[in-house]
Amino acid sequence: MNQFLHGPLFAFMLLLMIGPVAGTGVTNPITEKDAMTPGHYDLYVDSTGGAGFGDVARLPEGAFRQLPDKRKMTAPGVHYWLRFKIKNLSGNALVLETPREYRTAELYVPAAGGYRKTVFDIYRPWGENEYIFNNPSFALPGVIPDGYFYLHLRSDIRVGLGFWLFEGKLAHNKAVKKLTQVFLVSGVLLLAIIYTLVFLVRLRDRAFFYYLLYLVSLLAFTLTQVGATLPLLKHFTFNFYFITIPYAGMTVSLLLYVDQSLLLKRHLPGFHKLLLGVAALRVLVLLAAIASDLMVLHGTYIDYFCLFPAYLAALVCVRKRFSHARLLFISLTILLVAYTIRTVFKAYIPVSLFEHNQDNEIFFYLFSVLEVILLSFTLTERYLFLRKEKEQSQREIIQYQQQMLEESREKERLKETLNQELETLVDQRTAELQQASEQLRQQAQVITEMNKMLQEDNGKLSQQLVLVNKARLLEHNMSYEAFSHLFPDDDRCLDFVAGLKWQTGFTCRKCGYKKFYEGTRPHSRQCKLCRYSESPTANTLFENVKFSLQKALYILYYAYTTPGPNIHKLSQEIEIREGTCHSFHKKIEQKLQQIKPSLRATMNWTQFILVNPGKAQRTGADEN
Q: What start-end ranges are recorded for coiled-coil regions in this protein (predicted)?
């Protein structure tokens, strides 16, 4: 949305503004004295970017219009075509220069049989442009051919529309002069960076880290003045003014350095919060400027006002006679003066005096160097202050250690006295504990004997409980429904049969071994020695029973407790075939008849479960 508002819409408004201007076509050739002045070149706005040079060259005269305002700003992403003629008054080689904010610029020079194209593009590999460390520039021969020159400009940000024309020698001198200034300042900054790094590595203090960030930001700003950082910007796709970021970095890091250097959190907590808030606000403004590309958010005057809280904090510290605040206050004063001079020159020097306007940068460089030197001295003061604090802390630590040593000696004397008293008390207490231990041992023996008696009583009670339950079963002829409450399923019946079968312990029928594992089948047991697995129903009355064990158990109970049983009624009650019920009941009757009457009279119905058929037969034979 922002690109739309600053792109085609802005170009359309620009066309509406220049539409009423009378006259089309260039009437006066431009000279090195007429650069950036209206009436010497015409403008065609291509808001879509679809027109090539051939299309523009074939446009009718009415498509080009004179630019009414030399300070007109471009719209981001819109293509501008400037058409003009050049008259070389001096006869020397010329240089055509555009503002450095243009990432891409194309110049079409009249030549025999057509036009010669020269391109400046920061996206091109390093060294392929005619001028590396300068604004986008194009070299022109001393003999200027007749015909129109076409300058194709496009910027991703809003920038002044126009160009400048210099004699080649003058442009060379300007470039050398500016390079000399910038690289001298850069050398001083590099020395300051190394100086700061030494302190940072040695002291690990945050103030030196913030000052290092300030120096790096100032160095980046200095290098942008000669276009040295332009090739690096090709890695960024968002729109921004490349001076805004170093300026913001200088401001934020300087605010944090002042806060840390003056120890505002300890001495002036109100200013500490104010400086941190201003630093955070400056970062938010920078992000908003990058996102919205609004001119008002890119102005360096924002940094000018952001430094005032730091200046006031330094002034208050000076009035409070903080020794390490004087040089910092002077440095901030010099920096504000440099900002003021630069802002005034940028705001009030006419664009037609561009070459003089560049000379005002030397004031900013000189003040910056002086300010860096003074701030470097503040680093020394900071180092001395920290060393003094460290020495004071060490003295306090030594005094504290001596005090602790005296206290330790006194504690040792008290400890010896207490140890002697404690030894006496320990001997007495040991004798008491030995006596108490002997009493506890005797009590433990008594408790052990009582536990054995309780276990015997519990066993007797368990046996009595079993007898009681058996008595309940023998005293009452329970229905199948009541019987199902005691034995609800086959698993409960298996558990009951297993308890009866192995109530005196497990003995393997195959090898006689008495230790076992739990078998794979429910309630079965497996011999640990021979691995023989035996189920609870094996060698019992229920061996090889093909129907529900619960119903088979009830048939046994019914046959034992009911004289003259009704098989038809029994089969209906337990819901099995009458033939199956009659067959199993007959089997039970046969087993009962094989037992001696005298032995049968003393047995309850559960004991018939474990009757060994072979043994029962032998018993019956003996009886006979």
A: 383-457
Angle at 216 between CA 213 and CA 219, to 5 degrees: 150
Same-domain status, 275 and 344:
yes
Domain identity same for 240 and 207: yes
The answer, yes or no, to whether residue 25 has pLDDT greater than 70, is: no
Q: pTM for the whole thing?
A: 0.50
Model pLDDT for residues 359-408, shown as the tens digit of each residue: 556 666 777 777 777 777 777 777 777 777 777 888 888 888 888 888 88
The whole-number pLDDT of residue 11 equals: 36
452 against 284, higher pLDDT: 284
What secondary structure does DSSP assign to 315-347, as a single string?
A: HHHHHTT-GGGHHHHHHHHHHHHHHHHHHHHHH
3-class secondary structure for 522-547? CCCEEECCCCCEECCCCCCCCCCCCC
518 and 605 co-located in one domain:
yes
Least confident of 151-155, 254-258, 529-533: 151-155
Q: The domain that contains 69 carries what CATH number?
A: 2.60.40.2380
Same domain, yes or no: 194 and 83: no
Name the residue range of residue 585's domain: 486-623
pLDDT digits (tens, 9 = 90+) for 472-511: 555 557 788 888 888 888 888 888 888 888 888 888 988 9
Convert the pLDDT of each residue in 452-476 to its tens digit: 888 777 765 665 565 456 545 555 5
pLDDT for 23 beyond 50 = no
More confident residue, 192 or 19: 192
Residue 402 lies in a domain: no
The answer to whether 238 and 298 have CB atoms below 8 angstroms apart is no
pLDDT at 20 over 50: no
Same domain, 241 and 296: yes
Q: Which two tokens stand for residue 281?
A: 């606000």
Indicate if the alpha-carbon torsion angle 330, 332, 333, 335 is positive or negative.
positive
Same-domain status, 521 and 572: yes
Task: Identify the helix (H) or strand (E) that includes residue 138.
Answer: strand 137-140
Strand partners of residue 81: 44, 152
User: Among 111, 129, 162, where does a domain finish?
Assistant: 162
Per-residue CA distances from 79 to 19, 44, 152 (Å): 18, 9, 7
| Ramachandran angles phi, psi of 296, nearest 5° | -65, -25
- Count the Cβ atoms, other than its own, within 10 Å of residue 593: 11
Contact in structure between 534 and 520 (CB atoms under 8 Å): no
Q: Of 339, 359, 391, at which residue does a domain stop? A: 391
| Calpha distance 169→597 (Å, rounded) | 144
Domain count, the chain: 3
Please tell me whether residue 575 adopts helix, strand or coil conformation.
coil
Q: What pairing do the DSSP bridges indicate for beta strands 164-167 and 516-518? A: unpaired
* Residue type, position 548, single letter: S
DSSP 393-405: HHHHHHHHHHHHH
Residue 136 lies in a domain: yes
Per the model's pLDDT, the better-predicted residue between 172 and 285 turns out to be 285
Task: Report the amino acid identity of residue 267.
Answer: H
Residue 617: pLDDT band with limits 50, 70, 90: very low
Contact 76/239 with Cβ under 8 angstroms? Answer: yes
Is 396 a domain residue? no
Q: DSSP states of 572-584 as a string?
A: HHHTS-HHHHHHH
